[in-house]
Recover the amino acids of this structure.
């Protein structure tokens, strides 16, 4: 159901030109979805910054409780989310398609809007790709949990492909439904909730209660996704700590003997998130400028991996997978590289990696652009500034300290 939000975000990018800074910030995702729902159901609601902070912290606390106090339930909880994900899709799709207005195909596939006031429709299209990019976030989440999965070399890639295939079908269906049932696009783009999909739902069902129920499905699934994000972030911090790659690694790499969960890593990621939330009290623009690093940072990391894999593949440095590959130490400094039991062989793999590299270059470049031409200080995209700051800090930290303790990933070997 997150694809509903992604389609809505794309409307923000390519829709009607914004009238003021508040609307610009909202279309950048500045107003939490939950506050948008409250605004829809209560027109007198006056959102305050401290409310955003408290809602933000409450969502994180929910995820932390699932990941710590009842961590043994996490696999069952994730399975339940999958069921709710599919049921929620139909719970939104049916009312939208049956009750909503139906636009002609010519309007859906032949009408283009350059709402960002860019010089050409082509440039507007590429800037608008940012909305689609969000749909791919989290596709690699299973990798971060690989060390807690049996036969991860096979299970993890299958999980990634299955999730992309399933969500690709559901996302395409929901995107088409939204486009055909969009109704009054100007009303959707200028809604007081700051989320176009909410106005689209309202126009479709014709009453606030029905729209609120549909929106609640989206919010509920988003809340559940926070649990996986918390687990993923803490495991990444734990893994880097085990490899001695982050400050405080001596403590952060510890795992609870009772629950086998990196409690300290979860605690630190939670504290950092709580502290960042305080920035909202001073400036929501500054907060979102920091959070925007997630977009460009993730795709920069994907690009590094894709380029290196393509380079090694073309050079022929990666040996074929054999059963002996599981009995000897490979893919570490000083040893040869081998494929895992699951990969795309031959020319098809080269083509796949090449397409990935080209796509990532395009996305990375346009992730640094503002959503509309002639941006103000409040609507400027500061992702490049944030990325540069992090890179400078990382380089300084490495040469000043990390190079003395970090020698690459730590390999755990079973002596038996």
């Amino acid at each position: 159901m997150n694809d509903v939000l992604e389609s809505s975000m794309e409307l923000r990018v390519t829709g009607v030109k914004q009238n003021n800074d508040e609307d610009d910030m909202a279309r950048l995702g500045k107003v939490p979805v939950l506050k948008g729902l409250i605004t829809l159901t209560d027109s007198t609601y006056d959102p305050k910054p401290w409310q955003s902070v408290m809602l933000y912290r409450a969502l994180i606390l929910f995820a932390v409780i699932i990941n710590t106090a009842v961590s043994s339930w996490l696999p069952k909880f994730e399975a339940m989310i999958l069921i709710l994900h599919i049921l929620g899709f139909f719970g939104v799709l049916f009312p939208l398609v049956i009750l909503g207005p139906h636009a002609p195909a010519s309007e859906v596939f032949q009408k283009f809007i350059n709402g960002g006031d860019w010089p050409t429709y082509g440039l507007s299209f590429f800037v608008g790709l940012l909305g689609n990019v969000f749909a791919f976030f989290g596709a690699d989440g299973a990798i971060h949990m690989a060390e807690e999965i049996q036969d991860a070399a096979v299970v993890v890639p299958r999980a990634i492909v299955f999730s992309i295939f399933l969500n690709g079908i559901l996302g395409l269906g929901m995107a088409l439904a939204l486009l055909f049932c969009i109704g009054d696009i100007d009303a959707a783009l200028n809604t007081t909730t700051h989320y176009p999909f909410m106005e689209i739902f309202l126009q479709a069902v014709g009453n606030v209660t029905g729209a609120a129920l549909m929106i609640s499905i989206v919010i509920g699934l988003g809340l559940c996704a926070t649990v996986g994000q918390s687990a993923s972030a803490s495991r990444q911090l734990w893994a880097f700590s085990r490899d001695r790659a982050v400050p405080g690694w001596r403590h952060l790499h510890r795992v609870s003997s009772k629950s086998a969960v990196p409690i300290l890593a979860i605690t630190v990621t939670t504290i950092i998130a709580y502290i960042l939330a305080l920035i909202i009290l001073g400036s929501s623009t500054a907060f979102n400028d920091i959070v925007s690093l997630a977009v460009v940072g993730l795709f920069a990391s994907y690009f590094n991996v894709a380029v290196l894999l393509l380079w090694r593949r073309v050079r022929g440095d990666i040996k074929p997978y054999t059963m002996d590959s599981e009995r000897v130490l490979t893919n570490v400094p000083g040893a040869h590289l081998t494929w895992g039991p699951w990969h795309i062989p031959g020319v098809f793999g080269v083509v796949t990696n090449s397409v990935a590299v080209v796509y990532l270059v395009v996305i990375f470049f346009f992730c640094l652009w503002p959503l509309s031409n002639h941006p103000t200080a409040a609507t400027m995209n500061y992702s490049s500034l944030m990325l540069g700051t992090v890179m400078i800090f990382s380089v300084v930290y490495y040469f000043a300290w990390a190079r003395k303790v970090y020698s690459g990933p730590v390999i755990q070997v079973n002596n038996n």
